[in-house]
Amino acid sequence: MIRELEGKTPKIHKDAFVSEFAYLVGDIEIGAYSSIWPGVVMRADSGKISIGENTCVQDNSVIHGDADVEIKDSVVIGHRVMCHAAIVKNNVLLGNGCVVNDGVVIEEGSIIGSGAMVIENMEIPKNSLVLGVPGRVKSEVKERHIELIKSTALHYVEKGKLYKSQGLM
User: How many CB atoms lie within 10 A of CB 62?
Assistant: First the structure.
């Protein structure tokens, strides 16, 4: 469901896929070949939400912030993620069920592990693996992790194209 709020309606690139069972309201922009899956809620009532290209927001995730939220290109947001981050840079993976609180900046190539909770205003360095509650940088990601992020993002680009071609939007 796509809803206008205070004169602002989500802008969805013609090549993006948005499930009919997602709820998007307010000042939202979604880039080419990104995919928004069933149960996703994006509520842009306190700032703009920008989703780049080739990014997937998987089932039952929530994106909201007390200010602007910018999610760049080829980001994988797993199932049931709560994302209030300020900036999520390119090629980042937010694992299933993680929580990323307001003001967080996640640099390129990083992974927030499943179930981790990143506290407010934390800055995650490039290529970091973050685990735990509260989330802490445990190590640098390996090349195989970066390849996993890229292949998962591309897999969801193809899934979005398939669903869109079948009229499931």
Answer: 18
Give how far the C-alpha of residue 15 lies from the chain's centroid of Cα atoms, to the nearest Å: 17
110-126 pLDDT per residue, tens = 999 999 999 999 999 99
On whether the CB atoms of residues 110 and 137 are closer than 8 A, the answer is no
Average pLDDT over residues 118-140: 98
Chain Cα centroid distance, residue 63: 7
Taking only the tens place, the pLDDT of each residue in 3-33 is 999 999 999 999 999 999 999 999 999 999 9
Residue 22 tokens, joined: 């997602």
How many C-beta neighbours within 10 Å does residue 158 have?
A: 11
**Which DSSP category does 5 fall into?**
B
Hey, which bits of 34-97 come out as E strands? 35-36, 41-51, 56-57, 62-64, 69-71, 76-77, 82-83, 87-88, 93-94
State CA 62 to chain mean position distance: 9
**Which residues are registered as beta bridge partners of 117?**
99
* Amino acid letter, 4: E
Distance CA 166, CA 169 (A): 9
CA-to-CA dists, residue 26 to 29, 36, 68, angstroms: 9, 16, 12
